[in-house]
UniProtKB/TrEMBL annotation:
Belongs to the p23/wos2 family. Residues 2-89 form the CS domain. PROSITE patterns: CS (PS51203). This is CS domain-containing protein. GO terms for biological process: chaperone-mediated protein complex assembly; protein folding. It comes from the Eukaryota.
Length: 136
């Protein structure tokens, strides 16, 4: 019996993060074109397979793949048009195996707040401490 792997996703304006998590996975097929991603792999005796039909077009051939350990396949997939998507999949139905990767997630409003910096000016701890009377 073929099983659906757990998939996590996040986005930036110009690309998608897609993570497939399976213990001791052996990747048999991992391909992407402009509209979808196909994955097939085995773990022990179980077969996992999924096809993701994307909300909009991507640059599938430019997909970058990282197998960070024996249980996580991380993909970086460029979008054809850099814009924020309301969801990953073309269809609006909720699927139990697809979840948001909150460790990598950024909203459109957060796009300028990379690396933990809030707002465009950042935060100067020395200046703050001097104002509070406890200079460094």
């Amino acid at each position: 019996m073929v099983r659906q792997p757990p998939v996590l996703w996040a986005q930036r304006e110009g690309f998608l993060y897609v993570t497939i998590e399976i213990d001791d996975v052996k990747v048999e097929d991992l391909t992407a074109d402009s509209s979808k991603l196909h994955f097939k792999g085995t773990s022990h005796t179980e077969v996992f397979e999924t096809t993701l039909e994307f909300f909009a077009e991507v640059d599938g051939p430019a997909m970058k793949r990282t197998l960070s350990n024996t249980r996580v396949i991380e993909l970086n997939i460029p979008k054809k048009e850099p814009k924020w998507w309301p969801r990953l999949l073309k269809g609006k139905e909720k699927v139990h195996w697809l979840k948001v990767d909150f460790d990598k997630w950024r909203d459109e409003d957060d796009s300028g707040a990379e690396d933990g910096m809030i707002g465009s000016g950042g935060f100067d701890l020395n200046s703050y401490m001097n104002q509070m009377g406890g200079g460094m």
